Amino acid sequence: MIFRRLCLSVARSNLHLPTFHKRIGGQFTSTRSSPTFFTQSCYNPTSQKLSVASRFVSSNCEMGDARRPLAVPIPSLDKADKNELLRALEASVGSSFSVEPLRPVPNPLIIVISGPSGVGKDAVIKRLREVKDSLHFVVTATSRPMRPGEVDGKDYYFVTKEEFLSMVEKDELLEYALVYGDYKGIPKQQIREYMAKGYDIVLRVDIQGAQTLRRVLGQSAVFIFLVAESELALVQRLIDRKTETKESLLVRIATAREEVRHVNKFDYVVVNEEGQLENAVKLVESIIDAEKAKVKQKAAVI
Ligand SMILES: Nc1ncnc2c1ncn2[C@@H]1O[C@H](COP(=O)(O)OP(=O)(O)OP(=O)(O)O)[C@@H](O)[C@H]1O
């Protein structure tokens, strides 16, 4: 009888080998252990007897797999050495504890930062650059003249109108627009390259650009609308920047009035309050962190 039971155990164990999960190149694979690797026994609470199928897993247990008490002795928790305890627990549950991250690898994220002229998009991005290193800030191509202090290839790619139109022709831009008489556009190749390296991508666009990107990317990107605490604060900021003529100042103010109405097309709104740049940056960081922690990840394809 005992011999028959042992044979049954052995035969069944070949169908119920413990499965070990390994991750190779971002994919999960399952590997079955060799039947000689594993030792487990089964406790029969009714008879108080142990039936041991040495060196094999027995599927002949009468209790649920996860909760059944096992014959592998677990040392006392307050006295045992941690490694010894871990080994005993592994033997009891039937597999070694994996060091693979339990969180799935997050997809690269595209973050679109937009808002009216003068609200502080550049200022927020400049600070984000300093505090968060997993981000790639896409360098926009523009046909507008360089402002004092700006660096070609860092702040923008400064190109002529002809060069810009040639990029449009070759479909090299994700989005482009004519803004206050100058072209601005986002090179696709740069995004692809950095997403492939695992970076999250930050795009800085005006409202017009954000609307186009929403059409192109839909819900596959995160859209953040930056606002000042009031219209007055925004105008004062533009005046203080001293980059505008009287005419362009008036155009920017009129445009800003229209633009704030588009806030409901964005996913998040962040107030960049006077003297509180740091708070705005922190909120943008938190938005990115929360998006990266989402179970259902966005998956942008450029
Ligand atoms: N929280 C803040 N408090 C005070 N000043 C700020 C704040 N944020 C930005 N500024 C200043 O406001 C001015 C406008 O900011 P910035 O140039 O970053 O705006 P922008 O949205 O990028 O404008 P544009 O779209 O016209 O390029 C700058 O002089 C900047 O230093």
TrEMBL record:
<dbReference type="GO" id="GO:0005829">
    <property type="term" value="C:cytosol"/>
</dbReference>
<dbReference type="InterPro" id="IPR020590">
    <property type="entry name" value="Guanylate_kinase_CS"/>
</dbReference>
<dbReference type="InterPro" id="IPR017665">
    <property type="entry name" value="Guanylate_kinase"/>
</dbReference>
<dbReference type="GO" id="GO:0005524">
    <property type="term" value="F:ATP binding"/>
</dbReference>
<protein>
    <recommendedName>
        <fullName>guanylate kinase</fullName>
        <ecNumber>2.7.4.8</ecNumber>
    </recommendedName>
</protein>
<dbReference type="InterPro" id="IPR008145">
    <property type="entry name" value="GK/Ca_channel_bsu"/>
</dbReference>
<feature type="domain" description="Guanylate kinase-like">
    <location>
        <begin position="108"/>
        <end position="289"/>
    </location>
</feature>
<dbReference type="InterPro" id="IPR027417">
    <property type="entry name" value="P-loop_NTPase"/>
</dbReference>
<keyword id="KW-0067">ATP-binding</keyword>
<dbReference type="Pfam" id="PF00625">
    <property type="entry name" value="Guanylate_kin"/>
</dbReference>
<comment type="similarity">
    <text>Belongs to the guanylate kinase family.</text>
</comment>
<keyword id="KW-0547">Nucleotide-binding</keyword>
<keyword id="KW-0808">Transferase</keyword>
<dbReference type="GO" id="GO:0004385">
    <property type="term" value="F:GMP kinase activity"/>
</dbReference>
<dbReference type="InterPro" id="IPR008144">
    <property type="entry name" value="Guanylate_kin-like_dom"/>
</dbReference>
<keyword id="KW-0418">Kinase</keyword>
